[in-house]
């Protein structure tokens, strides 16, 4: 269907469209843009002049028709689904159409414009219905304006409506903030529940710790309480005294072993004194014990006798190496000791089973001489050195 121009509309339709489209301020701008006579500045006079000009085809009506077409063109796609003879129902029915489509963003002036813009077989009836609907709206608006004027005599009704719109916008913002705060409240509620659960778990763990502490206090009291520290100090002193006594007795035992192994001047068989400074001489048919710098390893034994083991080996010209016998790193540790030494002595009375087993296997693999001593005493070590010297002499 072809489009109708504004001068083809009925006068009341033109009046409705222009009155809805332009307020007092916009009327002044339209007059300036169209370069019309502004001698009569009253809003009613300007509106009447503009309506009168649009009833006939002229330069002003053509410009205004083009201006309104551009102004309402943005709503064309939103309203094209509504039949032309049904638009007046949208005007009277609110913001939603029969197809449940929202038309709240389309101004009333645009609805009137599209209702009468196109040619239609019942265009006169359509214009009459549109006029009837908008005319009733005018009466409602006048009554509403009158109520606002009487209820708020100190304010213009337009200002009240403006304040109402601002209040609605503020209410929307507050609603958004309220929803955001509600979500935050739910999150905080969830966090509080998590904290309560953590608190319960911590309290349970704390109760277990308290029970453990009470058990420790009970054990401490059974040990004698604070007086146990005094007894520990006394025991430390006693250990120091016993250690000194063991050292003294060890020195006496070493001296006794040396005297017992010495060869008398009459030529009897034995080992001469092994003082570190003078060396060791074999008298009679036993050759001298001379290790000639050989590396001697001693695994196990009494750790307090370590200095005496070392002095004894070094007195025969050997290099001493010691290992406690505790195989913390396993077999590799013992194999490393065997690999770095020439002779290995291993007392079986004070030693670990694994150390003896590892030493036996490592010495067999590396073809190293190994002597398992029945005790950890110095005299037994001297006899072991003597045995090695005799074996070395027989091999030579």
What secondary-structure arrangement, pairings included, does this model have?
Elements: H1 11-21, H2 24-34, H3 43-54, H4 59-72, H5 76-79, H6 87-93, H7 108-117, H8 123-151, H9 157-222, H10 227-261, E1 270-271, E2 282-283, E3 295-299, H11 306-315, E4 319-323, H12 331-340, E5 343-347, H13 353-366, E6 370-373, H14 378-395
Parallel strand pairs: 3-4, 3-5, 5-6
Antiparallel strand pairs: 1-2
Helix pairs in contact: 1-3, 1-7, 6-7, 6-8, 12-13
Architecture overview:
This protein is mainly α and 396 residues long. The protein folds into three domains: 6-151, no CATH class; 163-208; 258-395, Response regulator (Rossmann fold). Helices cover 63% and strands 6% of the residues. The protein has helices spanning 11-21, 24-34, 43-54, 59-72, 76-79, 87-93, 108-117, 123-151, 157-222, 227-261, 306-315, 331-340, 353-366, 378-395, and strands at 270-271, 282-283, 295-299, 319-323, 343-347, 370-373. The strands form two sheets. It has a four-stranded parallel sheet, sandwiched between helices. Helix 6 runs parallel beside helix 8 and helix 12 (331-340) packs across helix 13 (353-366). The longest helix has 66 residues, at 157-222. The N and C termini lie far apart (134 Å). Mean pLDDT is 81; it is low at 263-287.
């Amino acid at each position: 269907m072809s489009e109708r121009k504004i001068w083809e509309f009925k006068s009341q339709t033109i009046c409705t469209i222009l009155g809805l489209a332009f307020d007092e301020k916009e009327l002044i701008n339209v007059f300036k843009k169209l370069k019309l006579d502004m001698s009569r500045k009253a809003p009613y006079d300007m509106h009447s002049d503009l309506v009168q000009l649009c009833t006939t085809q002229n330069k002003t009506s053509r410009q205004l028709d083009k201006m309104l077409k551009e102004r309402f063109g943005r709503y064309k796609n939103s309203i094209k689904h509504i039949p032309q003879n049904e638009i007046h129902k949208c005007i009277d029915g609110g913001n939603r159409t029969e197809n449940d489509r929202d038309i709240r963003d389309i101004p009333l002036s645009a609805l009137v414009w599209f209702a009468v813009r196109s040619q239609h077989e019942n265009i006169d009836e359509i214009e009459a219905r549109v006029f009837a609907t908008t005319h009733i709206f005018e009466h409602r608006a006048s009554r509403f304006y009158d109520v606002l004027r009487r209820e708020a005599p100190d304010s213009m009704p337009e200002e009240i409506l403006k304040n109402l719109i601002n209040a609605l916008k503020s209410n929307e913002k507050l609603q958004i903030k309220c929803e955001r705060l509600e979500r935050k409240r739910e999150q905080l509620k969830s966090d509080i529940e998590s904290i309560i659960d953590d608190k319960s778990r911590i309290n349970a763990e704390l109760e277990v710790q308290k029970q453990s502490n009470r058990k420790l206090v009970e054990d401490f009291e059974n040990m004698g309480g604070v007086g146990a520290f005094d007894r520990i100090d006394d025991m430390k002193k006693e250990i120091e005294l016993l250690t000194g006594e063991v050292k003294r007795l060890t020195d006496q035992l070493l001296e006794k072993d040396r005297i017992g192994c010495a060869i008398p001047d009459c030529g009897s068989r034995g080992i001469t004194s092994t003082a570190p400074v003078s060396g060791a001489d074999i008298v009679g048919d036993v050759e001298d014990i001379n290790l000639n710098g050989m590396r001697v390893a001693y695994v196990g034994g009494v750790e307090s006798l370590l200095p005496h083991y070392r002095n004894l080996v070094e007195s025969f010209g050997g290099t001493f190496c010691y290992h406690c016998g505790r195989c913390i790193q396993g077999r590799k540790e013992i194999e490393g000791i065997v690999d770095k030494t020439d002779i290995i002595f291993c007392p079986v009375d004070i030693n670990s089973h694994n150390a003896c087993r590892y030493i036996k296997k490592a010495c067999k693999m590396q073809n190293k001489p190994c002597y398992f001593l029945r005790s950890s005493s110095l005299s037994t070590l001297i006899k072991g050195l003597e045995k090695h010297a005799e074996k070395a002499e027989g091999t030579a």
